[in-house]
Amino acid sequence: MDGLDTLKAKYLTAVAGASDESALEEVRLAALGKKGEISALMASLGKMEPEVRKAAGANLNLLKDEIDAALRAKKAGLADAALDERLRSEWLDVTLPGRPRPQGSIHPVSQVMEELTAIFGDMGFAVAEGPQIESDWYNFDALNIPPEHPARQEHDTFFMARAADDARPPHVLRTHTSPVQIRAMTAQGAPIRVIAPGRVYRMDMDQTHAPMFHQVEGLAIDRDISMANLKWTLEEFCRAFFEVPSVELRFRASHFPFTEPSAEVDIRCSWEGGQLKIGQGDSWLEILGSGMVHPKVLAAAGVDPAKWQGFAFGMGIDRIAMLKYGIPDLRAFFESDLRWLRHYGFAALDMPDLPGGLSS
Fold this sequence. Notes:
The protein is of the alpha+beta class. Helix content is 39%, strand content 19%.
């Protein structure tokens, strides 16, 4: 069968000259399609003598394989070229910096709440919660606060509005989180060990006071709890919270209606160079109030004071946050100033824990 070399050269040249897959498909159909030239020659083999057919068939199969291989290679080359063109036209440098976005942060009060929860949780205290609008009984009566006490006057407490003919006891915005202790003892009984962090409200506002602030109170009731247990608990808390190797506390006799005996607690500190340093120096700083729970408070919560006793303490979360992180003005806590929040805020995923450090 003559002319196979010419046919081969013809189609290899056509394959090489195909500019896209559509042109390449036309070449394939012209050569190897059902009506293509090489297919027609393969169909004519049946009319040949056996010896001639054998040699012609081998040559045609070799030609068919060469053209098919050329077609496949050209198709792959066209696909690679198309991909390169797409990469050039759709190119994006993923190493470029993204658009800057505002970064949120954890408020110092929220951070300190998490810190003290971690510390007291390690000492076996659970977290108790209660309503911010409290009845007069939970906020005052159950805590042994008499009717003539100044805290029960309108110049110190936010009373909820009510009709003039409403004879029911008034409701107030809670002035402390002590009502949570009453609710916890009423629900759980004794023994009990809880802390009660949350918002409280009082009629006061200046550089170190706000009408709404945050407080945490602690309560531990058992059969043999004493002031020694209270002292150890507070020392361990202050040492862990201020992240210092040791602290020294001073207890001063005081009076709170809900504890007896009662004590204000001071911590040894230094103000050298205008910077507060806890656990050293010759100065003392008041940080909290504490005492043994008054028997009348236990009885009001349904706990038998003849069998159970315990301690309670309370401190301002905003105040200890100011002391630890050097925040000079309490009012800035509530101004929603983004510059202040970025400066004093904490990373959202930086959860405090005792082994890793509270503020690391």
